[in-house]
Specification:
- The chain is of the alpha+beta class.
- Helix 7 packs across helix 15, helix 11 crosses helix 15 and helix 20 packs antiparallel against helix 21.
- A hairpin with a 4-residue loop joins strand 18 and strand 19.
- The protein starts with 8 loop residues before the first helix and ends with a strand.
- The chain is globular, with a radius of gyration of 27 Å.
- Strands 22, 23, 24, 25, 27, 28, 30, 31, 32 and 33 form a ten-stranded mixed β-sheet that branches. A seven-stranded mixed β-sheet has the order 1-2-4-3-5-9-6, sandwiched between helices. Strands 20-17-19-18-21-34 form a six-stranded antiparallel β-sheet, covered by helices on one side.
- It has 27 helices and 34 strands.
- Bound molecules: zinc ion.
- Zinc ion (ZN) binds next to loops.
């Protein structure tokens, strides 16, 4: 499930119902969205990644460096791929539920391909732990030429929507694409089994209605979006990521595979199968609604298909009394707020940017995961069988909906792209467009004429952002000559995003600052603020209006950014981007004698010029002549980290050596000789350490560094007696993009003007040894997101944070170099522009105790 909003009161009471055959009541749901994710505290990201680490050991094979997957445009159907059969795994968590284990999927698909010419299976990627991802296409056979024609029409819908809208014959020739995504949360299993059942039924049916469906649609099934989680019986993938939060970032290979499917197939309708909410939860959602959708088109179709799915699910005949199954619910209709479609981090909230005009999360009803997984096998299988029926009913209703509204849905998809290409203003949805659509449902944005992306702050960051946009099928141009726009002059090579393009909604949802929606709603389901424009480290200017006279060419990939100066002598690498961190860590691993300066630069000796040239090319980083510089020698920084999975992932991605630790690990006896810096954000409590562990840690603190984040980190700082600072907590569910100011300190200096917070903190009553590295701005500080004061006493709001210290550094009396973060710079691997701040904290902390050396 998307996890539970308590506001949906209907479901809470239903969940407490005891079904027949069960001795245990359903556990009560958490009381507030802020605590819904985790049981051990009011803060997100407080779960240590120890469990995931254990699973890393089971890694099957290395994930590929490149991802050469993608659907062929011109091969006919069926494609008859002989899928490799995975090794049988008797520990697969699906088996207990009577469901198909991961290793059973490929044999089944191979068999179905033999039995039916309607079934094609393809491998579309590989998971973090190395398992194949399967896409099944179900459609009537197509010659190579017929398949190519479908591609041509699909391209025309996207690239010439005005022409496509005028073409009266187009819809009759086009097979409407439908996307069924299953099991993105690994321990919400039955979508996979329902997909396989549906494929089998449709593949072998002789019903003329089915033959008609096969002729007029293509059904695409991502059989399991999360094989790692399915096998391991957990929500996350093998890297510990919740992939239904990753669509704006696409940090995980499984998410990149789903993204590519949506780009390549351009579905008119999609459903994302989850569990467990009783009665079955079927979107559309409550407000706030994402402001970058063509929401009139979206709500009309999404509500219609939602009602159809509801009828199909209720029509199965399961009852509360007999089966413990409550009637279905539709948040848009049945709840005021708490299950929203504001952030495009979820699959059905991402798909509409690629033309999906009916997109749904569906939560099947009966819990079989977490604590319920320990129920008797019989009861689990009873529940899973019902869940599979419900998921299959949702799929059946959706393809029936597309079959009956075929031409209209294609026309609506064309209309979405047409408005984008024409640059029409964000349309205000008429009240009552569907029953219940009121003023509280109206959200709009202002599309600028263009965005200009430059390397003014960081060329590597600009290149990363451009490549990310292109990977999302957003069009980007590169200026071939200098130009003036909106009163500014830009050099040749600057990137321009012309907002008159079919997928302008996706471009804008990433590049715009976002909106402070605190005044409009009290409870949000998940994050409320994000912005690639403000948080990814590139310089992004918005051009509100006016003519766009720029001589430019389309970009397939950002231009190379690496360089090494010709002049002899030592070289400097300024660490303002994660790519520079990667390059520096690469050099350190090679044994290059790098020194770290207090202004955030790495000095590479002239003798290591060749190594510098290599990493410059590898990571696209630019070296400059060093000049005279003073610094301390730097060795590879080895981190002991009590951190969440996304932080471990991000630290490793930057090339640091990370050893996960926790209270339990330290209490069992930890060898500190392999660690230079301790990172603490979750899973470590100084107060709970046994005397031996505390003695060992204290000894480490005499020479090592400490970086902390969040509530757990602040508590550690206080308990361990590190820096003199009082941590003040903002409201626990507050999150978003904040404006910050950073003096020229070793950590904050050179940071972007914005940061990201979730459960923000600030530091007061600072001791003389403490330096403020970054402060919340005195205006705002919230730029976009949701941050209200605590309802009870008015504390913890953004006003209280104004001008307060967000990041501080200092050396405690034992000598430990310490940095405290009240912001969240590595959140879900998203705010790329903030990662180097953490890296600078680590380098400074590791280097500050070293001897000073001077480079001539
Ligand atoms: Zn889910």
């Amino acid at each position: 499930m998307r996890l539970y909003p308590a506001i949906l009161g209907i479901a809470v009471s239903a969940a407490l119902l005891v079904p027949p055959g069960s001795a245990t009541a359903e556990p009560a749901e958490p009381p507030h969205p802020a605590v819904r994710d985790f049981g051990n505290g009011p803060e997100r990201n407080e779960v240590a990644a120890g469990v995931v680490e254990g699973q890393q050991a089971q890694k099957l094979r290395l994930a590929p460096e490149a991802e050469p997957y993608g659907l062929s445009r011109d091969r006919g159907y069926p494609r008859q791929t002989q899928l490799p059969i995975p090794v049988e795994n008797p520990a697969d968590a699906s088996i207990k539920l009577g469901l198909v284990p991961y290793h059973g999927i490929a044999p089944k698909l191979n068999d179905l391909q033999r039995r039916s010419d309607r079934v094609s299976a393809e491998i579309i990627g590989r998971t973090h732990q190395g398992r194949d991802l399967y896409l099944v296409t179900l459609t009537a056979p197509e010659s190579r030429g017929q398949a190519a024609e479908q591609s041509v029409i699909r391209d025309r819908i996207e690239n010439d929507p005005a022409g496509a809208a005028r073409d009266r014959r187009l819809a009759a020739r086009y097979k409407a694409p439908i996307f069924v995504n299953a099991n993105i949360h690994g321990n919400e299993w039955e979508g996979t089994d329902a997909a396989l059942r549906t494929i089998e039924e449709l593949a072998t049916s002789t019903d003329p209605q089915v033959a008609d469906l096969m002729k007029r649609t293509r059904l695409y099934f991502n059989i399991t979006a999360n094989p790692d989680g399915r096998v391991n019986g957990v929500r996350q993938n093998g890297a510990g990521f919740d992939m239904n939060r990753d669509f704006v970032t696409a940090s995980q290979p499984e998410v990149r595979a789903m993204r590519q499917v949506m780009i390549d197939t351009q579905p008119v309708a999609m459903i994302d199968l989850h569990g467990y909410v009783n009665g079955t939860l079927i979107e559309p959602t409550t407000p706030p609604h994402g402001a970058n959708y063509e929401y009139d088109v979206f709500i009309k179709n999404t509500y219609a298909n939602g009602l159809g799915m509801e009828a199909a699910v209720n029509g199965l005949g399961y009852t509360p009394a007999k089966d413990g199954v409550e009637p279905a619910q539709i948040p848009f209709r049945d709840s005021a707020e708490g299950w929203d479609d504001w952030p495009p981090i979820f699959t059905p909230q991402y798909a509409p940017f690629h033309g999906t005009v009916a997109a749904h999360t569906v939560e099947i009803p009966l819990r079989v995961n977490n604590a319920d997984y320990n129920l008797p096998v019989e009861e689990l299988r009873r529940r899973s069988a019902i869940n599979t029926d419900v998921a299959a009913a949702a799929i059946r209703a959706t393809y029936g909906f597309v079959q009956s509204k075929h031409d209209a849905l294609i026309a609506d998809q064309i209309e979405v792209f047409r408005r984008g290409a024409a640059g029409e203003p964000s349309k205000v949805v008429p009240l009552g467009i569907v029953p219940g659509f009121g003023p509280e449902d109206v959200y709009n944005t202002t599309f600028p004429r263009a965005y200009v992306i430059t390397g003014q702050r960081s060329a590597t960051a600009a290149a990363r952002l451009v490549d990310h946009l292109i990977a999302n099928d957003v069009r980007v141009e590169r200026a071939t000559r200098p130009f003036r726009l909106n009163g500014r002059t830009y050099p040749a090579g600057s990137y321009v995003v012309d907002m008159r393009q079919p997928k302008r909604g996706l471009a804008n949802v990433m590049l715009e600052p976002g909106e402070d929606i605190s005044p409009r709603v009290d409870a949000m389901y998940d994050i409320s603020g994000w912005s690639h424009g403000l948080l990814w480290g590139a310089t992004v200017d918005s051009v509100p209006s006016g003519p766009l006279h720029v001589s430019s060419e389309p970009v397939k990939a950002a231009a190379p950014t690496g360089s090494v100066p010709r002049t002899p002598g030592p070289l400097a690498l300024k660490v303002t981007d994660a790519k520079e961190v990667q390059a520096l860590n690469d050099l350190l691993t090679q044994g290059v004698a790098v020194t770290w300066t207090n202004d955030g630069r790495a000095i590479v000796p002239a003798a290591a010029r060749q190594a510098a040239a290599t990493v410059s090319d590898r990571y696209g980083v630019a070296f400059t002549p060093a000049g005279p510089a003073t610094g301390t020698p730097l060795a590879p920084v080895r981190i002991a980290a009590a951190a969440s999975a996304d932080e471990l992932f991000t630290l490793r991605e930057m090339g640091f050596t990370v050893t996960p630790v926790s209270t339990a690990v330290l209490n069992a006896g930890f060898d500190w000789s392999g660690a230079d810096v301790l990172y603490v954000s979750s899973g470590l409590s100084y107060a709970v350490l046994n005397p031996a562990a505390r003695t060992a840690l204290d000894a480490f603190l005499a020479t090592g560094g400490v970086i902390t984040r969040g509530g757990t980190g602040a508590a550690f700082n206080a308990a361990a007696g590190l820096l003199t600072a009082t941590a003040v907590a903002g409201r626990g569910d507050a999150n978003g993009v904040v404006r910050v100011t950073s003096p020229a300190g070793p950590v904050g200096g050179g940071s972007p003007e914005h940061s990201f917070v979730y459960s923000p903190r600030w530091f007061t009553a600072l001791g003389a040894e403490v330096t403020v590295e970054q402060s919340y701005a005195t205006d705002g500080p919230l730029v976009s997101g949701h941050w209200r004061p605590n309802a009870a006493d008015g504390t913890g709001g953004p006003d209280a944070a104004r001008g307060q210290a967000a990041v501080v550094s200092g050396r405690d009396e034992r000598g430990a170099a310490v940095v405290l973060f009240g912001t969240e710079p590595m959140f879900r691997n998203h705010p790329k522009g903030l990662f180097p701040q953490v890296a600078r904290a680590l380098y400074w902390s590791a280097a500050v105790t070293g001897a000073t050396v001077t480079t001539p």
